[in-house]
TrEMBL record:
GO terms for molecular function: ATP binding. This is ABC transporter ATP-binding protein. Keywords: ATP-binding, Nucleotide-binding, Transport. It comes from Butyricimonas hominis. The lineage of its organism: Bacteria, Pseudomonadati, Bacteroidota, Bacteroidia, Bacteroidales. Belongs to the ABC transporter superfamily. SUPFAM superfamilies: P-loop containing nucleoside triphosphate hydrolases. SMART domains: AAA. Residues 7-241 form the ABC transporter domain. Pfam families: ABC_tran. The keyword Transport applies. PANTHER family: OSMOPROTECTANT IMPORT ATP-BINDING PROTEIN OSMV. It comes from the Bacteria.
Length: 243
């Protein structure tokens, strides 16, 4: 396997009890790629994300991250290398923003407080928030600001891969646009591989270097935004992109 591949699914099947959600699912995500996944509700998008960071295991098949079969890897180390951002991310309410972000690097280099402080101040800058917000509690921030703190926290461990499950679903349209531009800038600046789930086709086409369209556990099209827009492969994709 070429080492420019960050994530690879090889003949992956996932069933919950008797029900098969993914059947012989294959994909390759290149290092530094920004993959957006869009599809019908219940089509298996979140299942794909949870398989990548080992929160759930495949029924059959192999998943490689960084060329390694993740079923044979230390799960704690795997997850440390993969940031996870979800909608309305569970920030710790009794901790300041600073403590929330420092939680991860604080664990990693607890002997070097100064280094942690510098890392937190850089991260708050990366996600476009003011330094003075570091001493506030999550309840003292807007939804969009909390979402930025969630991203900063996911980036704190300096992950190679960032998984984002509808991260901007709960914010207003203007904040959403700002967060989209912010994540594009972060992607460019850090070169991190991003897998991003959305319900919004405009968002999928704007952010993705490639877009995966899923329907009922299978892939309808996995292509560049241009090809999805101009050459829809199936009626399902056609329906999705026509406005
Ligand atoms: N732990 C579980 N046990 C049983 N069924 C599950 C479990 N988790 C998910 N499912 C089912 O698997 C299917 C795929 O779920 P998944 O969360 O991957 O879909 P999704 O595409 O992310 O959906 P949505 O867009 O609605 O969030 C759904 O039908 C869901 O009900």
């Amino acid at each position: 396997m070429g080492n420019d591949i960050a994530i690879r699914f090889e003949h992956v099947t996932k069933s919950y009890r008797e029900r098969e959600i993914l059947n012989d699912f294959n994909m390759e995500i290149r290092r530094g790629e920004f993959l957006t996944i869009i599809g019908s509700s219940g089509s298996g998008k979140t299942t794909v994300l949870k398989l990548i960071n080992g929160l759930i295991s495949p029924t059959f098949g192999i998943i490689y991250v960084d060329g390694k079969d993740i079923s044979k890897e230390d799960q704690t180390l795997l997850r440390r290398n993969i940031g996870y951002v979800i909608q309305g991310i569970g920030l710790f309410p009794h901790m300041t923003v600073r403590k929330n972000i420092a939680y991860v690097p604080g664990l990693l280099n607890h002997r070097d407080k100064e280094k942690t402080r510098r890392a937190v101040e850089r991260l708050i800058d990366v996600v476009g928030l003011e330094q003075e917000m570091l001493d506030r509690y999550p309840s003292e921030l807007s939804g969009g600001q909390r979402q930025r703190v969630g991203i900063a926290r996911a980036l704190a461990a300096n992950p190679d891969i960032l998984l984002m499950d509808e991260p901007f679903g709960a914010v207003d349209e203007i904040t959403r646009k700002m967060l989209q531009n912010e994540i594009l800038r972060i992607h460019e600046q850090l070169g991190v591989t991003i897998v991003f789930i959305t319900h919004d086709i405009k968002e999928a086409l704007k952010l993705g270097t490639r877009v995966m369209v899923m329907n009922k556990g299978h892939v309808e099209q996995f292509d560049t935004p241009d090809n999805i827009r101009n050459h829809p492969a199936t009626p399902f994709v056609q329906e999705l992109v026509q406005d």
